[in-house]
Specification:
It comes from Monoraphidium neglectum. The chain is about 50% helix and about 10% strand. It contains twelve helices and seven strands. It has helices at about 5-15, 25, 30-40, 60-70, 85-100, 110-125, 150-155, 155-180, 185-215, 250-255, 280-285, 290-300, and strands spanning about 75-80, 105-110, 130-135, 220, 235-240, 260-265, 300-305. Helix 10 (about 250-255) links the parallel strand 5 (about 235-240) and strand 6 (about 260-265). The radius of gyration is 23 Å and the shape is elongated.
Length: about 300
Amino acid sequence: MCWVTYKRLRSTLQLLAAPGASEQQRQLPGRRLAEVAYGGKEPRFAAAEPPWKAVNARLDASQRRAVSLALRAHDVALIHGPPGTGKTTAVVEVILQEVARGSRVIASAASNIAVDNLVERLVAAAPKLKLLRLGHPARLLPQVLDSSLEAQVLKSDNSSLAKDCRKEIKALNTQLVKLEGWKRAERRQIRGELKQLYKEERTRQDKAVKEVIGGAQVICCTLSGALHPQLYGQVFDVAVIDEAAQALEAACWSALLLAGRAVLAGDHLQLPPTVLSDEAAKGGLGVTLFERLQHAHGAGASEMLTVQ
């Protein structure tokens, strides 16, 4: 784990340490989920199932029950299943159903491969979905690069204007190099124009990034990526974590605190995430949030997938 990620995870845990103690903590969308996880409150569900029509007509009965549970959840729903039961398939359906009813979703997993898998499936199921994949392009699979922030920003109007600014900057720099040294007044004028153009280019580029992020219906990123400054101030209706039983509890909260509701999918009976420190494992870091919630509320808050 790099130092930056460590500091971000530490700050997330500090927000959880005394929920509601500060104004920032009171404004966290996911504060209710923290009360369910640590405060002894029970997960809440709507009494009636909301109407929905499956995007994937091949869902089996247990997957449909899992999607229904997730759509009824006011706080958190768990999708549990052994390998090969289609947990990610159910997760994709949940995301599409949430978007269909106007929700904004942050979808995460511990690894880039798992996130890219989600992106591929979502794009295949809903090509017109406004989906954004956050993450360094070098770490993404080639087939999801069109959904990356960099690719989306290049398509925006503000990015085109920023590109025009860069062309003008290049032309003025060329002119400045060719200008005789004794023409000081002209050189000062060009430098002044360059200063303004550099400022305009940065402003346009920043606007393009904010425009793309703000306009996304679904943002997909790793759990550590959810802590990136580009997501500061972004609020989501639902946080979805795939392979949640393979993620550190601290990492899960980086995404969960950004949303008012949560859906976690995983299998706590498989191998948990690797914890190198024996002291940390004894202190509870070896127990995932999925396992904790499953043991505390599994009977009423979880749906098990049964068809392999």
